[in-house]
Amino acid sequence: MEVGTPAFTYPEPSPWPARLWRTGILLGTLLIAIPVLVVVASLLAGYSPAWQHLLSTVISDYVFNSIVLMLGVGLGTFSLGVSAAWLTAMCEFPGRRFFSWALLLPMAMPAYIMAYTYTGMLDYAGPVQTLLRDTFGWGFGDYWFPEIRSLGGAICMLSLVLYPYVYLLVRVAFLEQSTAVLEASRNLGKTPWQTLFLVGLPLARPAIAAGVSLALMETLADYGTVAYFGVSTFTTGIFRTWYGLGELQTAAQLAAFLLLFVFTLLILERRSRQRLRFHKTAVRDFPTRISLRGWRAALGFSVALMILLAGFLFPAAQLAVWGAANYLQIFDVRFLQLVSNSFMLAALASFCCLLLALLFGYGKRLYPGPAETAAVRVAGMGYAVPGTVIAVGVLIPFAWFDNTVDSLLRETLGISSGLLLSGTLIALVFAYVVRFLAVSLQTVESGLARIRPGIDESARSLGHSPLSILRRIHLPMLRGSVLTALLLVFVDVLKELPTTLILRPFNFNTLAVRAHELASDERLADAALPALAIVLIGLLPVILMSRSMPGPQESA
Amino acid sequence: MNRIRHWPMIRILTLLAMLLPALVACSKSETVNIYSARQESLIKPLLDRFTSETGIEVNLVTGAGDALLARLSSEGRNSPADLLLTSDAGNLYRAQEAGVLQPAISAELEAAVPEHLRSPEGYWYGLSLRARVIVYARDRVNPDQLSSYQALAEPQWEGRICVRSSANIYNQSLVAGMLASEGVEATDQWLQGFVGNFARPPQGGDRDQIKAVAAGQCDVALVNSYYLGAMLQSPEPEERAAATRVELFWPNQEGRGTHVNISGAGVTQAAKHPEQARRLIEFLLREESQRWYAESNNEYPVRPGVAPSELLLSWGSFKADMINVSELGRLNAAAVMAMDRANWK
């Protein structure tokens, strides 16, 4: 694996647990990878004449817009996430403790809902522009105002919603960074800014890469925002091909190309830092924050406040205004049912994802063979696929399994088992795991990467088994990453829509489904409350986590 | 070791998850299971009424039409769905093509639904009509200048038209309807002129187009009529104000008539309760149900002779395009390709 340092090999473990780990990982990843493989397998099927049409008309648009969107959101999430993380982890200014968790809030906002709220505010017909026109007596075309429903607008929306991925992961990385290194940099006469760019950022690179790649995968899978803004991206192209042309096969092929593209990017990124190691020192030292004073404190405060305003307070206020009118009629028993459905699914899926991420991530650390590494990579690819497409990838194998069992039973015993798994919550939770495993995997892996193998070595030489090391040493050290992984998946499932829509059982609704149905009927006022409820429930784990977030000052 | 404490919770939740489908499976035999592309709030009140009247339980999953169709197809003969409800003709046509529907025939159904609004073989039936109309700014457009969809390609409308993206099914059906009656060449030509007249890149939903006309960003827009109705009855004062600044125009009254699409339903091939499913369709076509569509969502009844709501009456009667709506499904792909060629985003 690593060139330049002698690769560490464990003292030959007894072959039995090793074989168990390896087969477990391979089988587990294979299972999770099935839907992704179903999508990729479409590449082997025939290519319909629709391809000719796509290539000659729209595909260049799709590719161009998707790439610009990716670059924009990459830059946006990087700068928002890293500055927020640096401010709250390494600096001391008034309100820092509050901002350190409040800056996570935008994550709970579904991107398309955010898009609706900003359009409501900034559209030509919206209050801001109307006020400008009324104040200055302008008419249409008399003045310039940024068009919110545009590629640029989509970049802003997605950056605001997705930067918390970068923020969370990088913040943990900053907090866990060895202060000795940072202080050395300061003692050698570097300014805080130079320290950030010369030491802090390079050391946090695995976390930055993990956060930004999560943000980008989600960007490429986003449909709601770009569709509403009328920006044709690869994802809208996939749905146009499927719904409009009626070509599910061609749509799956498009999705497969998207997957291969993302896969290549991830591999390249990993390759480029393969020679580097990012372990923290064994001794947990307490970073001393840079105290901001005077205008610097004011600047730090305002930067954090602006991010919070744009990413959360403005859109939430707009939702509250919309929702205020009809809050009474919506709080009934059925609404509570929605809340409990959403909560249960999100909790279940986040635990499943975490469990698998620990198993896969740790297994890969134990036995970093090429097969294991590749298998784990593929299992994490579901995140880059639009939800509806991955849902079809789940539908097909599940229905095949059910129908095969049913046929067998009919032939042999003369009874019908019907659909065993399709249309059940098991299928739905499985789909969530397929889709969101990447999130917990990236988080856990970037956490594991910071634990020196020396610790494993010592523990192994003291006679501990891999499982016992995971339980007694890694889990406690990974506490921040574990909580982060739980939180991220929880919130993601809470706002997940397309997979839920198509795979859920009869009469089973979630908050996201309700918000979407109302919004898609363009009843924004009615959609506001379920959307707000998603945000509020998303708050719970954010607050819980903020209490146990790593960082000496906070836990003290 | 905090984490260990969570174990019992995971077990309980998993157990719960496993129980739920069993509960659905154990439900009574007098049921109808529906896959519906029409969203819950636009159908549930009628379904509840059906249940209280007949005692037949109704189970519902809503979602995107094509996704539900994919689910129906892959579940095959074991699919629990008895009825597929869609909000456009295209998906019913596709479902019929995919072989997941079966004919449901009764004298009542045939009497209730005009021939052009159902599948010729009885695979599916229209339940409500949705018309795509022109709305225009009262203060800037003289309705005498308006006549047809085709006329919107004329140079006088340059930079004055708002319409949503061509990814939207209503726009696709509109173009499919034009393909059916005018042919490819005329449609391509019309699209060239029409797309060239857009005031801004296509974006937003139908309500957003109405708001843009009201605010002066453009002078005319193509929208489904019930969105205008919904805005006129909106709880938000701004929406009501915007809606009163525009007027509805019925296009193509001299020619083939205004383009209409349907929401509709068909009994699935795998149906375990085909009888009950057919009864539900019949129920949805009864006069009072048909009036509900008009009153609650400003759609037009498919059943002849049912008086629409007061608001719909105020818009006057109109001549609708009489081509069979299955043509819209058949030509949908061709329509999307034509729109791609014309660079309608």
From TrEMBL, chain A:
Gene3D superfamilies: MetI-like
GO cellular component: plasma membrane
Protein name: Iron ABC transporter permease
Gene Ontology BP terms: transmembrane transport
The organism's taxonomic lineage, starting at the top: Bacteria, Pseudomonadati, Pseudomonadota, Gammaproteobacteria, Cellvibrionales
Transmembrane segments: 25-47, 67-87, 99-118, 151-174, 195-216, 250-268, 298-322, 342-362, 374-401, 413-434, 477-494, 527-545
Family: Belongs to the binding-protein-dependent transport system permease family.
CDD domains noted in UniProt: TM_PBP2
Domain of life from the UniProt record: Bacteria
UniProt keyword Coiled coil, yes or no: no
Keywords for the protein's UniProt record, in alphabetical order: Cell membrane, Membrane, Transmembrane, Transmembrane helix, Transport
Membrane topology classification: Multi-pass membrane protein
Cellular location(s): Cell membrane
